[in-house]
């Protein structure tokens, strides 16, 4: 509803900047998504081709198709988060349904025996590359209060900036601070207006020092996190088969981002001398973006039994826009409730993000019509991720933090397929190294997969099941004075269904 009100001019807009390293990583990673055959073999298709999702690893895979083909894929997923926070544990489950993939490859054979060009392929496809669906809650008792978040933002800011003047509204001042001072000053204003923090000298408008109205002790905290959305890309592919044994291909990719997140933090205390006994802080984020990347790849058929593949995916250059809303409420046993709920949508200046390039090497061993084994190795240097802006925002400090925080990460995928008549049976394993130098923040990701398919002739139907797990420590409010974090064991399992048709 707030966006509707904004359209008719009731709400104000603020322009500010508050990106962090977690944003850089979120839009740089890719999941193993795509057709059921692709997922059933854990995505190890770089030297194989002949599958619509295989061209997302190596665009030369389109030229491996014997004839024109198309496919459509749906999947359902279940996400479990086993969360530990001090003395509390919680298990949260959620489910999601996705339209993963649709596309077609058109194959044009050259019947001339004297030509070096045996085949040309053209393709168009949509693929979901990342699923942002996630949900968890954490509960525990801490000796740290969220008051440190607001104190850290407020220190050094003149009291005059945080004080609502006669004839001025909370909405108006919150909006003005976002436009002129930035995100941090807005947080200081929220903390001051809700009485979490207070100026050392209330009579000095130039006061820049603050203290907390929350007394030290123990704090019962409850945190809820939910995110939805996806990354997807539309691909135009071209491929060719040369001299029977060599395949080449190129992809031009148009990417989009659609990401939404809500967090709800509650804190309560009965500490002696505390003037604030409850705090509820709600934040909402909405992100949209568009980008471009390109890929080039080749497959060499060494023999009927052995194939080698290599591909390179360029960085993706994104343009991203973000909006946030906030709500802060406090309760005092002595003074009652205070609510700060600005009817303001903070609109961040559009910024640019360059994600890392990816290089992949592949090998596959084929046993005639009986089956195959395939292996892919990929490498991405996440420390090369970079923010930029045409709006005058300075990201130099953040880019240095990215260089110091991230590292190059390897991904290994192994898959196999056994065929018996019209039936195909598949399995796979994947390993993804942590992009963080400190693997306690985000651990390695491992996964296994199984799949089965039946060939009806012109129609093929495939089903796959895959499972992955990863550990992470997630801070409630990144880059803030409040450093509390939860420990999460994340488990995901998916069922994927693909219908493929020879055209």
Could you give a quick summary of the protein structure above?
The chain is mainly beta and 503 residues long.
Describe the fold and architecture.
- By secondary structure, this protein is mostly beta strands.
- A 14-stranded antiparallel β-barrel has the order 2-3-4-8-9-10-11-16-17-19-20-21-22-23. It has a two-stranded antiparallel ribbon with strand order 6-7.
- The longest helix has 11 residues, at 170-180.
- The protein has helices spanning 2-7, 21-26, 36-40, 147-154, 170-180, 183-193, 396-405; strands at residues 12-14, 69-85, 88-109, 117-131, 134-142, 197-199, 210-212, 219-242, 246-268, 278-301, 306-313, 317-332, 336-340, 344-347, 351-354, 358-366, 371-381, 386-388, 408-420, 423-432, 445-455, 459-475, 485-502.
- It folds into two domains: 14-143 and 221-502, Porin (Beta Barrel); 146-213, no CATH class.
- 11% of the residues lie in helices and 54% in strands.
- It is elongated, with a radius of gyration of 27 Å.
